[in-house]
Amino acid sequence: MDGKTQRCLRDTEGQKKVGSGQPTAHDFLKSRFLPKMLHQEIIAPATRASKLVRDFYKSLTQLAEHYGIQPMPTAEFEYPYNIALTLSDVKEKLKSNVTNWYDIRVVLEGSKTYLTSEERYCTGTTLFFIPVIPVFLMLRDKKRRKAGVLLLSACAYLYQIADIPYYRQEYTSLYWQYEMYAEMIEQDEDTDGTAIYRSELQQAEWVGDKMEQKLINPNNLAVFQQRIKSFTGRDGFEKQCLQVSKKAYDMFSQYPNEKFFRNANAHNWVDEDFDNDHILSIERYISFSARSDGWLSDSIFDSLNQEFGEYGEIEEPSIKKSFNGKSVVTANLDFEHKLFTLLDDLARLLNNYTFQNHE
Q1: 148 and 110, same structural domain?
Q2: First and final CA of the chain: distance in angstroms?
Q3: In this structure, are residues 266 and 283 in contact, taking their beta carbons and an 8 Å threshold?
Q4: Rounded to two decimals, what is the model's pTM?
Q5: Bridge-partner residues for 101, per DSSP?
Q6: Last residue of a domain, which of 101, 120, 139?
Q7: How confident is the model over 134-189, as pLDDT tens digits?
Q8: Which end of the chain is more exposed for a tag (fewer CB within 10 A), N or C?
Q9: 161 belongs to a structural domain
């Protein structure tokens, strides 16, 4: 009774394989389960079903040729399941093979049925703010002046050609953010930090006006290529400046007239009864700013993030293509992909310079 309990020995052969009594039952595991019928809105009366199906497959052929995909055969299935199954299959193929693909819809327009596809560049709820004070400081830094001049040309492209909003322009939402905090400081009682707050605001205004005069100068674009050719990065930071500037110059050469908002038409995709006031417009989250550090910037960014979180829809670059037998739109979002990548790289580079100066 006082001895230790002996544990059972394990079977060296391991667990026995479990199988059904009938070998044919194993085929159950090889079966493919088709998606459920969820799109009730595409169900039409029997009198219209045959024409709807014909129009649908005709439109599908045009869509497949445009995107270079091969839809699975579904004609043997009954209506409306054949359409639901096709949509499920096409969505997966477009998602896997088409960059920036976003959605597909069945449109019933009068007696005609066709497919539409939406391609959208998803910004990921990011604030794309380019700080100009770091560029101003680089231009005054003997060690970084040449790199600063290079980035000045890159910013000039964004200002003059891509038409990125500038925070010192009164029509921009960011301008009124700075004004709001200026009024708050003047109305509040003085504290230990009031002098610092006023200094940051004055710097944002003064440097912002000075930098805008530089950015608007057409000479910064006229000598852009020359500045790139004559620049040799001495360290990792300057090599990154060169890479970012080359990206900006390539866009300047390839897209000499394109604006950042050229495909910002998300409002066209909402229902007619949708309140457009709940759409975050693209110019609200893309802009030049003063800087990305300090009390003023932190306060503005926190305020904007809180405000933007209340919007139900974000206006993002998007393209709608209709496959109704007519010529299909050949536009794409290549420009937007390069632009947002440039904005992200440039902002990160300038923030790194600021961080290094504080060290």
Answers
A1: no
A2: 73
A3: no
A4: 0.83
A5: 119
A6: 120
A7: 999 999 999 999 999 999 999 999 999 999 999 999 999 999 999 999 998 888 77
A8: N
A9: yes
